[in-house]
């Protein structure tokens, strides 16, 4: 625990491309996740076993949560939102393994996830509603609010990235400081708090992403529905 | 805490790859198996619903069949009651007919018994009358009656038609050797001569006439000429009277 723990230093550099521990850990997480997914789903049966029941319960809970927020487009946005939840949970909990650091303590990783959320809002909105209809909602209820819409889009994306990054980095930093001050095994309660915080932050990030995407999908629909009611 | 663009870009790429991997190996297979299970459950529910509907249809059919059977049973029961009633009426009619016939037979038998009783009473009355008349004539019989009967006999013999006299001669066949004359009272000589003349006239025979007295005749005469007998006496008249009554019955 030294300077490497507080700062993300490149492990390998190839020109402009730098491979940091964040990327390496992310690959490990991806490999483990993919392997588990393949192992758990290679022999799915109509009559499920214990592992299959657990996997089906996990997927069903996620799918139901997405369906509650965006019932009409849950099938389209589920892979992105579910992957956000699973990846962030695993990435957050990786920090509990000695010698490994959470990828989400790196602002570059959380910014990348937030940027993907920003893009996915527009991607799903344009894909489902069309470019013209989607862009129109920025002018609603008045074109004067367009700058505020743009500021809102940017700030909430930044907030997503910074919130996750700040929480996870602060947890590791607190644990490191307590370890340095109090000694071995004293940060264990903080590590227990790390588990809770990892789950909460993953839930918050994924739920906010879901709400942003769903709001991008449904704002125009609500406007069209309102116009239809006015005409009626 | 600075932003590493290489990490930023690689994390974006990594996450997109992870999305594809999980969609390919986790979400889609799990959702497919859930959908298959749901479809299977829906099919089973549909089959169960179909079986339920079929069971209801069979139940309804069974109830209809039970109702039909009940109706047929009631119809058969009614038919049986009607048939029993018809048989009962026929049996009653037959019994009534037999009873009428029996009553008719009894009535006829009773009528016959009554007729028989009447005949017996009448016969008894006739017998009693004959006995009474016989007693009366027996008490009243005497020479005077015999004389009047003798006179009546002579008158009959003297007035017989010739045709009848010829038939009488045929009846006795071979000429008799004698003529037997019985009387309840002795005949006088004059009466014997008158009788012999009359007999000779009627029979054309000249055979001896034997006289005897038979008090059983009560009064009157009994003349035997061979196989032919001429009766004019109270006893034979009463006997003829009784036989006549029997013949008339």
Compact summary:
Chain A contains 8 helices and 2 strands.
Helix/strand order of chain B, N-terminal first: HHHEHEEEH
Just give the CATH class of the largest domain in chain B: Alpha Beta
Helix content of chain A: over 70%
The protein's oligomeric status is: heterodimer
Q: Can you give the helix content of chain B as a percent range?
A: over 70%
Principal-axes shape call of chain A: globular
Task: State the strand order across the main sheet of chain A.
Answer: 1-2
The N- and C-terminal alpha carbons of chain A lie at a distance of 68 Å
Structural class of chain A: mainly alpha
The tally of domains of chain B stands at 2
Distinctive features:
heterodimer, A: 232 residues, mainly alpha, 8 helices, B: 249 residues, alpha+beta, hypothetical protein PF0899 fold, 2 domains, 5 helices
Describe this structure in words.
The complex is a heterodimer of chains A (232) and B (249). Chain A has 8 helices and 2 strands; from the N terminus they run αββααααααα. Chain A has 232 residues and is mainly alpha-helical. Chain A has one domain. The termini of chain A are far apart. Chain B has 249 residues and is of the alpha+beta class. Chain B has 2 domains: 1-101; 142-248, hypothetical protein PF0899 fold. Chain B has a 4-stranded mixed beta sheet. In chain B, β1, α4 and β2 (209-213) form a beta-alpha-beta unit. Chain A binds chain B through residues 7-8, 10, 16-20, 22-23, 26-27, 30, 33-34, 37-38, 40-41, 44-46, 48, 52, 55-56, 59-60, 63, 78-80, 82-83, 86-87, 103, 106-109, 111-113, 115-116, 169, and chain B through 1-12, 14-19, 21-23, 25-27, 29-34, 36-37, 40.
Furnish the topology, listing elements before pairings:
The complex is a heterodimer of chains A (232) and B (249).
Chain A: H1 3-6, E1 10-14, E2 17-20, H2 21-41, H3 50-69, H4 74-94, H5 107-129, H6 131-136, H7 146-182, H8 188-231
Antiparallel strand pairs in A: 1-2
Helix pairs in contact in A: 2-4, 3-4, 4-8, 5-7, 5-8, 7-8
Chain B: H1 5-140, H2 143-158, H3 162-171, E1 179-183, H4 189-203, E2 209-213, E3 220-225, E4 228-233, H5 234-248
Helix pairs in contact in B: 1-5, 2-4
